[in-house]
Write a structure and sequence with these properties.
By secondary structure, the protein is α/β, with parallel strands linked by helices. The protein contains 8 helices and 7 strands.
């Protein structure tokens, strides 16, 4: 028996989310239909509220409710070190480790020639502008350890080194082919303290 048309549309919409396959999308769809109207309204309102309140920080491009974000506004942070990550989720993962007290820059993705994602599709120009304007002495490349992240790190190292800025890469501790946002705090702490110059 086929699923009802309304459920089918929900499944198609939900399985577009990252990490959600058809079976999980079906479970979520049926769950949303079974819960109370108050719960559905609360869920919908939380999405609407978050979409209205969130913006990109004009300095680091992290998602925040303020501009500049709380990290960029924090006078106690080391303003000479910049940790470069792919996504806001990666920034959160690194900050949870509490090993790092510098600033951040969110690229908004990674280079992927096979997917036609080049330097102009991520914030490389804005990164170079920030590195030139701020007194950054070290750039930590905290991209994922998969092929896209490695390609991005190598490219960034090449364009940052001429600026006479020390370029380091997160050290051992992150699994090859893994995503930073899924790593635990201890793994990220070891990776930060074991970073190496590129």
């Amino acid at each position: 028996m086929n699923r009802p048309q309304h459920i089918e549309r929900m499944v198609e919409a939900i399985k577009r989310f990252p990490g959600i396959g058809p079976k999980m999308a079906e479970r979520i769809s049926y769950h949303l239909v079974k819960i109370s109207q108050n719960e559905v309204d609360r869920f919908i309102n939380s999405i609407i509220s978050a979409r209205a309140a969130m913006r990109y920080c004009s300095k680091c491009f992290n998602l925040s409710e303020s501009d500049p974000c709380p990290i960029c506004s924090d006078d106690l942070r080391d303003k000479t070190i910049l940790c470069i990550v792919e996504t806001p989720q990666d920034l959160i993962a690194v900050s949870k480790a509490k090993e790092y007290n510098g600033l951040y820059f969110v690229l908004g993705g990674a280079l992927s020639p096979l997917d036609a994602v080049g330097p102009g599709d991520i914030r490389t120009d804005l990164l170079i502008k920030r590195l030139r304007e701020d007194s950054i002495s070290e750039a930590i490349l905290a991209t994922d350890t998969d092929s896209k992240g490695e390609t991005t790190a190598l490219y960034l190292a090449e364009i940052i080194k001429p600026l006479k800025i020390k370029v380091t890469r997160l050290g051992y501790g992150l699994p090859a082919g893994g995503d930073i946002e899924y790593a635990d705090e201890i793994t990220i702490s070891r990776a930060i303290s074991g970073r190496k110059e590129m």
